[in-house]
């Protein structure tokens, strides 16, 4: 979620914000299977996230790389997810919009992500929605045979419900660069992808107080 800094902060940062200040992100982590979120909770960054803002599907079976499965599960669980989102939105001083980070190739990021985009647009029609969407790398083979369908179905929802889409290419080879300008391809792990997404967000949202 994106909220504007308090008016008094814009002219001079509050003295309370020192190196010892502890911050908690206004983020909601959600997944239909526990592996990735558990890896975050077992990492040095676990304390950055409010445990009350983490949602994991009860059955934990994921969406099977299937857009339709992720979308249909969204219909069943959206109330629990929006209880978290609404609470964080109500706690914002000046809510300006939402940022969604997801992949469009698998089942959860594409299907559940599409469902949440539609619901966000209905629930907060005057708020901006920006996404950081990881697109599949068409230069490489994938074991997700329905990846093109997941991507196309998600692209429609991005077009209809997002105000800004930052497209990011996953997997390997000159992350985010067109094929003709790429240098020698190098492997891109999920950690690399997360770091580069974080860097891109920092460049987008960084402002001088």
UniProtKB/TrEMBL annotation:
The keyword Transferase belongs to this UniProt entry's keyword annotation: no
Molecular-function annotations in GO: GTP binding
Domain Tubulin/FtsZ GTPase, residue spans: 14-184
Cellular compartment(s): Cytoplasm, Cytoskeleton
Record PROSITE patterns: TUBULIN (PS00227)
Pfam families documented for this protein: Tubulin
Highest taxon above the source species: Eukaryota
Biased composition (Polar residues): 181-194
SMART domains per record: Tubulin
Record keywords, A-Z: Cytoplasm, Cytoskeleton, GTP-binding, Microtubule, Nucleotide-binding
Gene Ontology cellular component annotations, sorted alphabetically: microtubule
Coiled-coil stretches: none
GO terms classed as biological process: microtubule-based process
InterPro entries: Epsilon_tubulin, Tubulin, Tubulin/FtsZ_GTPase_sf, Tubulin_CS, Tubulin_FtsZ_GTPase
Disordered as annotated region, ranges: 169-209
Similarity annotation: Belongs to the tubulin family.
Protein's UniProt name: Tubulin gamma-2 chain isoform X2
Record organism: Physeter macrocephalus (Sperm whale)
Gene label: LOC102995502
């Amino acid at each position: 979620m994106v909220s504007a800094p308090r008016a008094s902060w814009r002219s001079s940062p509050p003295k309370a914000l020192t190196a010892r200040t502890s911050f908690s992100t206004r983020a909601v982590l959600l997944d239909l299977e526990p592996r990735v979120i558990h890896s975050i909770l077992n990492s040095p960054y676990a304390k950055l996230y409010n445990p009350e803002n983490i949602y994991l599907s009860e059955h934990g079976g994921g969406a099977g790389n299937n857009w339709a499965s992720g979308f249909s599960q969204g219909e069943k669980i959206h109330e629990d997810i929006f209880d978290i989102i609404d609470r964080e939105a109500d706690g914002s001083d000046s809510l300006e919009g939402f940022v969604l980070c997801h992949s469009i190739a698998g089942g959860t990021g594409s299907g559940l992500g599409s469902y949440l985009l539609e619901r966000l647009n209905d629930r907060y029609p005057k708020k901006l929605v920006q996404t950081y969407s990881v697109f599949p790398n068409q230069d490489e083979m994938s074991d997700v045979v329905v990846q093109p369908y997941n991507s196309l179905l998600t692209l429609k929802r991005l077009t209809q419900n997002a105000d800004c889409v930052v497209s990011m290419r996953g997997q390997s080879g000159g992350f985010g660069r067109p094929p003709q300008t790429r240098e020698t391809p190098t492997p891109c792990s999920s950690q690399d992808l997360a770091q580069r997404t974080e860097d891109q967000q920092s460049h987008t949202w960084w402002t001088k107080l």
